[in-house]
Amino acid sequence: MIKEKFKVLTVDLGSGRGNIVTMDGRDTVAGGSGLAALLFTKYGHPDKPWNDPDQPLIFAIGPLTGYFPLMSKTVCAFKSPYHDQYTESHAGGRSALALRFADLDALVVLGKATRPSCIAVGSRHLEVKEVPYLWGKDVFESGKMLRSTFKGAGHRSILRIGPAGENGSAMACINADTYRHFGRLGGGAVMGNKNLKAIGINGDAAFQLPDSKDYPKIFQDVYTKLTDTDMMSKYHDIGTPINMAVLNETKMLPIRNLQRTSDPAISNITGEQFADLALLRNAACAGCPVGCIHIGFVRERFQKEHRYIYRQVSYDHEPIFAVGSMLSIEDCFSVLAIIDMAEKMGLDVMSAGVALAWATEATEKGVISEEETVVRLSFGDTEGYKQAMLHLGRGANEFYRLLAQGTLKAAEYYGGKDYACVLGQEMAGYATGEVYFTSQALGFRHSHLDSGGYSYDQKEKGKDVSKAVDFLIKDEQGRVLLTSMVACLFARGVYTDQLLAECLKAVGYGSLAETLEPVSRNIRQIRWKNRLATGFMPEKVIIPKRFYEITTVKGSMDSDFLSSLVAEYGKAIRDLVQ
Amino acid sequence: MKILTTPRMERCIGCHSCSLACARLVHKYLSWDTAGIRIASSGGLSTGFEARTCLACDPAPCVRVCPTGAYSQRKGGGVIVRKNLCIRCGECARACPVDAVYLDAATEPFVCIHCGRCVPFCPHDCIEMKDVRATGSTEDGGAA
Question: Coil, strand, or helix at residue A155?
Fold first, then answer.
C-alpha cells in the first residue's frame, strides 16, 4: 500500500472513461496540497478561464491519510470562478478515508458531461451516470436521492452541489457528507460547470499494515495525545464558536458589516449559548475521535395546528459570525435557520453572510433597494435573510447573480466598495487587526487558515513589519506541510514537524521524512507559482476602507502599519517563487 | 466469559476509530471493512450511526452453515474462526442476521472475536465488554 509513486485516477466526463496515472513526486511534493499543485501543473491551463471544460477539478489526500488520527481532510484544487486563479479548498467528512480506501492518492475530474451526471468510484469500480432528474434539486433533496445511487453506506463519501453550484455562483460550495464543505472560492460552480452534480467515493479496499514495529507505538502515542490531554478540548467541547465571546470581549469580532467589533447583543449567539440551547449532538470526520462537528437544529411550525418540521444544521464560529454577528441576528435558532437556507442552496455560508451584510448596509445607505434585493434587507431580520439566501443561491435576478460573483464585484457596479468586507474574498470571522487583514488579503487561499495572523495580532504588541511578515511566511510553510499530509489543522499543536517525520518513517516514507523542510518549501513554491501564473498580483491587492476604520482592544488601526504589511508581504510572496 | 456489546450507539459520532483499531490490531490491516465492528450511518448521517458487529449468538447460525468446520461455537456466545479451514464460500456472511461478517474481495470472512481491543478507542463509551450470564445473554445492549 505504501507507494513511492502517486496513484491518480483521472475521469473524463466527456467520454465517461477513466485512466489510472502513476506519477513520481512523493519525495518532492508529499501529497495533499503539494500533490494538488503538481496535478494542476500537469492538467491545468493557466491561460484558459476557470470554466473551460479542460480545467481540472482535483481532490488529493496525503501519505498519512488513514494511517493516523486526524489525518482526515481532503484538498480540493481548481481554477476559481471567484478570481479566475488557482486555489485550494479543504474539507473533512469521509472523503479522505474514502479516497484512501478506494486506493487513490488523487481524483482528477476533466472535461464536461453532456448531461447532468455523477461519478461513482471505488477501488474496483468507476462509473459516470447521467442524473438529469437531480439537476435543480437542492442539497437536501439531492442528498436523499444520492444515498440510493451510491454504494457503501458508512464507508462512502458523497460530494454534491446545490442550485448555487449549478448556476455558476462563485460562492457555491461542494457539500461533503452533509455537514462538511469544500466551502470557499466556488468549487461548487466548477462542478456545476462540468454538469457534475455529485461524486460518490466508496472506500472498499483493505491494505496490509506498514511493516514496522514503530507504527503501532507511534499510533498509540498520537492517539493518546489527541484524546487524553486537553489539547483538543476547545474543539471537542464548545467547539470553534467559543471564539465568539472571546473576540467580542477583545473588540475583535466583526459585527453589523464590521461597523463595530464588540456588542453586548451577541450574548445570545456565543458558543456557550449554542451548546446550552441548540446543540443536538456531535459528529466526526472519519478517522478523527475528536468529533468537533457540532450539530444544532431548526424547528419550524408549518401549520396553524401544531405541525413542525425540523432539520439538523452544523455550526461553527465562521458561519455564526457570518450570518449572526455580521447580520446582527441575536439568537442562535435564527442563526441556524439562515445557515440552513445557505446549506440548502449549496452556498458557502461565510461568503454569503458577509455579502448580505454588505447588501444590508448598501440598502441603509440608499445604494440599492428592494428593486435589487427583492426582499427588504435590514440588520436583525431573520426572515428577510432566509429569503435572500434563496435568491442568492438561485441567482434570482441580475443583482443576486452579480453579488454571487463576489461582494466587490457588486460594489464596483452599484457603489459601496469602502464597506465591502472583502480580503481577497469575503472576510473570515476575525477582526483582530493589521496582520490578520494582511494575511487573509494576500494569503494563498484567502483563508484565516493560511497562516496564524489572527493569533499574531492577539499576542503581539509591537508593530515590526519584517517580524510580522517573517511570521506569516514561516507559519504558512508549517501549515502547508500539514495540508500535504493531509492533517486537520486543529491538530497542528500535536503534529509537530518532528512527529510528522516519525509518522512518515513508521509507515515507510523514510526518505520523505528526512527532507520535510525542503519539501514544504518546494510545495509552497509550486502553489504560489500556480497562483501567480493564473493572474494573482499581490501589488494590486486593496484593503477596503472599512478595515482601516475599526478599533480593537489594542486601539485604532494603524493605517501606515497595515499598508506597509501589505506591501512587504506582497514582496515576500514574490520572493517565494524566485 | 465476556462479549463485546454496543449499548450506547446513540452516542456514536461516526469516527470509525473502533473499526480502524480492530482492523489494525486484530486483523492486521489498514481498513474500516476488514474488522469485527463496522460503523454505518442508519439512513443518512442525520439519523445517527449503527454498529455492525457480532451479537454473540449461541447457537450461532454462521456455525451451523459453515461446511468445513472453520466456524465453531465460542463458549459464552460468538464464534471461533479457523481460517486455515475456510474455503471462502461466504455462507457465514449470508447466514448472519445482522450483517456482522464482512467478506473481502477474496471472500475471506472477518468477524468479531470479542477481544475488546476496540473498546478503548471509542471516545464516547458507545461499546463495552460485558460478562454473559449462563443463558448467554447480557443485561442490556444490542447491535444498533
Answer: coil
